[in-house]
Amino acid sequence: MSRALWFAAGASVGVYAMTKARRAAEAFTPDGLADRLAGLSAGLRVFGDEVRAGMAEKEIDLRGHTGLTLHVHTPELAEGEAARAVRGPAGGATREGND
After folding, report:
1. Residue 14 and residue 8: Cα distance in Å, rounded?
2. Which of 3, 13, 57, 63 has the most CB atoms at less than 10 Å from its CB?
3. Could you report the per-residue pLDDT of 7-64, keeping only the tens digit for each?
């Protein structure tokens, strides 16, 4: 029983090592490197989009708290968010409307 157990364990480790070695070798081929660079660029693009969305959300929030108007000319911001930022947090008139 003990020899069969050690044989199965050795065979499993051998298959695992061969699989890892094959994957590592494929990662350093030109196609593998191109795939890694494509994944990196996609990740950076998604990260940049998330940062820009967070910045826009925070700007709307800060403008709402300070009562400043927001002149939106970009399609990234939804119409409802821009209208809410112009009205302010309570939905009342802005400072410009009270002058």
Report:
1. 10
2. 63
3. 999 999 999 999 999 999 988 899 999 999 999 999 999 999 999 999 999 999 998 8
Task: Tell me, yes or no, whether 81 lies in a domain.
Answer: yes
Q: Give 50-59 pLDDT, tens digit per residue.
A: 999 999 999 9
Q: Is residue 99 part of a domain?
A: no
Domain membership of residue 55 (yes or no) is yes
For residue 48, tell me if it sits in a domain.
Answer: yes
Per the structure, the count of domains in the chain is 1
> Is 85 buried (19+), middle (13-18) or exposed (0-12) by CB count in 10 A?
buried
Asked if residues 67 and 94 have their Cβ atoms less than 8 Å apart, the reply is: yes
State the residue for tokens 């350093």.
Answer: 28
